[in-house]
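Why does residue order matter? Because the sequence determines the fold. Keep that principle in mind as you read this record.
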Amino acid sequence: MDTILILDFGGQTCQLISRRIRDFGVYSEIVAHDYVPAANGGLKDIKGIILSGSPYSVYDDGSPLPNPAILDLGLPVLGICYGLQYLTHSLGGKVAPLDKREYGRMKLRFETKSPLFSDVPDGFVSWMSHGDSIIKPARGFTRTAVSEHGIAAALEDPAKKFYGIQFHPEVTHCEYGVKILENFAVGICGARKQWSMKAYIETVSRDLREKVGNRNVLLLISGGVDSTVVGAILLKALAPGQVHLMYIDTGLMRRGESAEVSASLKKLGAENLHLIDASDKFLAALAGEADPERKRHIIGDMFIRVQEEEVAKLGIQDAFLAQGTLYTDLIESGKGVGKKAHTIKSHHNVRSPLVEEKRAKGLVIEPLDRLYKDEVRVLGRELGLPSEVIGRHPFPGPGLGVRILGELTREKCDILREADAVYIEELKSRGLYDKIWQAFAVLLPVRSVGVTGDTRDYRYVLALRAVVSHDGMTADVFEFPAKDLLEISSKITNSVQQIGRVVYDVSSKPPATIEWE
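Structure:
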């Protein structure tokens, strides 16, 4: 299958480049930053190479650098942001920080015609995120576009088939970004559109059968989109008797979660379904802990401990552990393919010590670890899962544990459970739920003075969060109709006695993350 190879330099949107390319039907694959195709099975099927972005500067100690041989393969190369800076720096140009650094939306002006910008209008809005800039192009390169500040935004050496852009076409805020990537992959590299989600299912199913053989697989399932899709693909790829689905009630679940999950899992056709109530164990382990990273590790480790106890009872100790880990989880936890991603926050199923121990033994299976949330939904539809499961908003593995800021108690869980349920029910009744990528409530570790009747009150503050996104890597605030937001706030404070004040989080991602912890 024709392939565009993407070198991972640790940028937060590296996988986003890959999935944008897959969106228009070309297969793409992410490899470590120092990967050289000629030294790893040859150039068969590889039509072009993309050098991705990075949190590093080319001048930083330990900055990820590709093997120089990658530029001698005769393949078209596209450098994005850091990738362009590497091309410039390594080929004799000059890269340096300027007083004017460029972040966010930026209009570009073309200086010369380029096949990279075929059918892209002059003055389109790009998305910048760079501290260093191109001061002097490398020999053979010409500037094809500049920013509104007059700074080089695109360069190319068509004789060598080297192209570079200083902006990020992969993010949704960049106009014509997908078209630019398609111009490179299809127009310049000549890659054929041979990729589909059906092809992904076939590939993953084959890989699962080869890795698992006749052994058992255990999936800790929450009932959310990710773990449910993993359950469906395991049951499709393997014999149902090999697949064990275990739902662990942590005490950190949403209202009515356990009953809903039990009903939906039975519809999957699983032969082995285990429902475990471990809420007392989780809440006891979390007692007195306020640090969010420690909470995530405690929750991750407790999942494994409870699972190990139950596995021993079932006699399936040699089972593989399947997880609904997405690439966004790996990237935010510093686990990108190239091992150079910065850790934003640890995900309980990625950096938990006990999970890492199992991963080191080769006993972890993550069929979704190269997908984004919206791709998982497409995969779920392809597998025949019902729309009410596919359209459900994301829910973190640690549950309410990372939506209660500060120390956890059973009382706080009950308060947040009730408030969150009111919020979600109101969104659905007002026809807003399906317009939002993710909505949830956060219980803050502060109380606020209020008045009920003629009496002074001192109750908790609740933050509401609602964002729109396509993939979870970037997100904008949902623009609530003021009337709805005011009425929802009033409904919460009137329905949940312990909540005295409601605020709305208006932070985008970046700089914030979607979850608060």
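The radius of gyration is 25 Å.
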